[in-house]
Amino acid sequence: MRGEIRVVHYINQYFAGAGGEDRANIGPQSGESPIGPGVGLQRALGEAAQIVATVFCGDNYMAEKGDVAAVEIAHLIGEYSPQVVVAGPSFGSGRYGLACAQVCYAVQRELKIPALAAMHEESPAVDLFRRRVVIIPTGRTAAGMAAALGAVARIAVKLGRGEALGTPDLEGYFSRGERSNEFSETQGAVRAVDMLANRFQGKAFQTEWPLPTYDAVKAPPAVTTRRPIRLGLVTEGGVVAKGNPDRLPSGWANKWVRYSLTGIEDLTATDFETIDGGFDTRAGNDEPDRLIPVDALRELEKEGKVQLHGELYSTVGNMGSISNMRRIGAEMAYELRRAGVDAVLVGAT
Amino acid sequence: MLVTALSPLAKTVGANRIVRGKAVSHPFGDPTLSPIDERRFRRRLVEKALSALAIDVDTPTVFEADPETT
Questions:
Q1: Mean pLDDT for each consecutive 10-residue tract of chain A (349 residues)?
Q2: Which of A84, A119, A213, B39 could tie A123 with a disulfide, CB 3.0–4.6 Å?
Q3: What is the pLDDT of residues A38-79, one digit of tens each?
């Protein structure tokens, strides 16, 4: 007899055998048995749990209706009274991965039961949902189905039993950004010296705190045009119009602002200021060109060396998270690209 | 190009074209100079930054400003 744990499995139209892209618009449907990869999942679950239903939906339906569809699906899932919900594995898929994560998140909110998804780390859903949903890493393609199902089954049973998960490293899921306190038998200084000794001796060691990785961006080729260089201007020094009408924060920024430079020959203390909380702003307030050199650039513009983009883009780098700054940079780059600039001068404090 | 006083940091993070600015709180300025001299300093720094655009780089590169601008 199968264990008490009732599982509902969410998959997309393709894995349900309903069709490919041509059926990506179908709405949620369900069946009271394992379907597609659910058959392998049930095998992996063995006697510990039973897939009481499979719910599937078209990827485009999910992509277009987003959380509304996810909530709809969560309620459909709820009709089967599961203890745990499994979504995917979706491997490298974009839309399907997002759908799985959204369904899991909705299930957690609406039904207050655990849910888990499984996908490749490069799926956009991982970055977006890892803090909110347990996501198990998989290979890039369905060639890794068997391995993925094994990991999924193990964690699904734990969650279904109401057991707490161990650390991401131990259990095998994407870290959720959670920090919990624990006591160590060994004092930090001893652990640090041991780690250093191992490192020097070429022995294995494990950092207790992984440093952030920065992407390597290939340098664009040199600008060798003979006409004036079209130049965008960006500052992360918190330059704002006097009074900060757009309320750019002094730190932890998640937005940026833009000011027209039309008719502006230099940044004056009457019209501009800096609200950056990360440095002494007196010099920048007295003369904002010290932060982004509009005056010098206008001089060079009159000499035909550059042609300034019509706007100044501004944000505050102080205490900025890498993810926010990445997004802000990407948004600025998109606009500057659209405006057809050749290059960008970035003033940083 | 990135103009910042923290050029070693910029290199670590992977900015490709970097020119060293004067100070954190005034990368393009020097309040110890007279206004005229400061304008001149700012202009030379900007010219240095613009000249870096015309140079191909493979890896993060700090373009050192001329002695009198640092």
A1: 83 94 92 97 96 96 92 97 97 93 97 97 89 95 95 97 92 87 92 96 90 82 93 98 97 95 97 94 97 98 96 95 89 95 96
A2: A119
A3: 999 999 999 999 999 999 999 999 988 989 999 999 999 999
CATH number at residue A63: 3.40.50.2300
Q: How many domains does chain A have?
A: 2
Single-letter amino acid code for the residue at A306: V
CB contact under 8 A, A296 and B42: yes
Whether B15 and B60 have beta carbons less than 8 Å apart is answered as: yes
- The residue out of A171, A205, A239 marking a domain boundary is A171
Question: Are residues A295 and A147 both part of a single domain?
Answer: no
Joined tokens for residue A126? 């991982």
Separation of alpha carbons A79 and A326, rounded Å: 41
List Cα–Cα distances, A55 to A42, A205, A317, in angstroms. 15, 44, 45
- Give A181's contacts (C-beta < 8 A, 6+ positions apart): none
Question: If we measure between CA atoms, which residue out of A338, A345, A165 comes closest to residue B4?
Answer: A345
Which residues from B are below 8 Å from A282, CB to CB?
25
Task: Give residue-wise pLDDT tens across range A84-137.
Answer: 999 999 999 988 999 999 999 999 999 999 999 999 998 889 988 999 999 999
Per-window interface: A 242-301 vs B, CB < 8 A? 279-284, 286-287, 289-293, 295-297, 299-300
* Residue A199 located in a structural domain: no
In terms of pTM, does the model score above 0.95? no
Of A134, A153, A171, which marks where a domain is finished? A171
Q: Minimal Cα–Cα distance from A342 to chain B, Å? A: 10
Q: ipTM of the predicted structure? A: 0.94
| Most A-contacting residue of B28, B30, B69 (CB-CB within 10 A), to test interface | B28
Q: What is the pLDDT of residues B40-69, one digit of tens each?
A: 999 999 999 999 999 999 999 999 866 554
**Residue A183 belongs to some domain of the structure:** no
Q: How close is the nearest chain B Cα to the Cα of A41, in Å?
A: 43
A283 falls within a domain: yes
Residue-level pLDDT at B66: 62
Q: Is residue A247 part of a domain?
A: yes
CA torsion, ordered A221, A225, A230, A233, to nearest 10 deg: 40
Which range marks the domain in which residue A315 is found? 229-347
Which chain A residues have a beta carbon less than 8 Å from that of B5? 349
Alpha carbons A134 and A144: distance in angstroms, whole number? 19
